[in-house]
Each structure stands twice: as C-alpha cells, then as structure tokens.
Amino acid sequence: MSLPTVPSQAVEVAAPVVGASGLLQAGFGMLMVLGLIFACAWLARRFGLQRFGSGGQVVKVVSSSSVGQRERVVVVEVAGTWLVLGVTSNQINTLHSLPAQSVPGATAAPALAARGPVDLFAQKLRESLTGKARPASW
C-alpha cells in the first residue's frame, strides 16, 4: 500500500533590499538623537546644571579622608576659611575651623612633599588626637 504524496513546490524568499528611503530614514533618526543630546546639554548649561569642578566655586574641597565605611573627614575652603567637616550618610558636622593655608605638600620638605595631602591631614589629625607628634615616616 502506497500513500499518496503531495508534491511540494520550492518557494524562493528574496533578501530584503535596503533602498534609499531606508537609509534616509535611519540617517534622519540618527540626526534626531544627536540633536536631542545637544539640546539637553544646552538646557543643562543654561539652567545651571554644570559639572562640578568648574570655575567660580564658593566651596572648594581641600582634602578628604575615609575614617569608616560610611564616614569621612573632609576639609573644605569657604571664603578664606578651612572647615573640617565630619560627614556621615545622615549628617554633616563642623569639627573645626581655621584660616585658609597653602596646600601642605607645596612648602613641605622633600620627604613630606612625596606624601599626598590625605596622608598629611591624617598625620595632623592623629597628632591633634594624641597630643604628640609622630615621625614623618610613620
């Protein structure tokens, strides 16, 4: 016994052709996205959403040091005064204030100049907490 079979016809599928209208549409979409990016940048600059670090700052971070997982001691300069701030995830406390000075590494001895301002601040903080000076190599 033989089963009847239906002859299958070969169906050709043509590859899609990208025409000028497709390229024009893609180019127009790209120009719209770039225009939107430039418009957002212009609006951000116009309405004061500038990057940090630009000129004319009132508050300047002089030094920062981590003293815990979420706690930091930060020295900021405001109007010729350095403020030592204790910063946590919930609050900011003023720990000390002093007249602004030059950056500690600029006028220090060569051994101290190789150290960063964070290390110098940590040394000064240790000295003030313990009441005695430690050697510069410590």
Annotate the secondary structure layout.
Elements: H1 20-46, E1 59-66, E2 72-78, E3 81-87, E4 92-99, H2 104-107, H3 110-113, H4 117-130
Antiparallel strand pairs: 1-2, 2-3, 3-4
What does this structure look like?
The structure is a single chain. With 138 residues, the chain is an alpha+beta fold. The chain has 2 domains: 18-49; 59-130. The chain has helices at 20-46, 104-107, 110-113, 117-130; strands at 59-66, 72-78, 81-87, 92-99. It has a 4-stranded antiparallel beta sheet, with helices on one face. A hairpin with a 5-residue loop joins strand 1 and strand 2. The chain is elongated, with a radius of gyration of 33 Å. The N and C termini lie far apart (99 Å).
Order of helices and strands: HEEEEHHH
State Rg: 33 Å
Average residue pLDDT: 75
> Which blocks of ≥5 consecutive residues have pLDDT under 50?
106-113
Helix content: 25-40%
Q: Which of globular, elongated, flat, extended, rod-shaped describes the shape?
A: elongated
Helix/strand-derived category reads alpha+beta
Distance between the termini: 99 Å
**Total number of helices:** 4
The strand count comes to 4
Count up the domains: 2
Cross-sheet strand order for the largest sheet: 1-2-3-4
State the gist of this model.
This protein is of the alpha+beta class and 138 residues long. It has 4 helices and 4 strands, in the order αββββααα. Strands 1-2-3-4 form a 4-stranded antiparallel β-sheet, covered by helices on one side.
Question: Tags for this entry?
Answer:
138 residues, alpha+beta, four-stranded antiparallel sheet
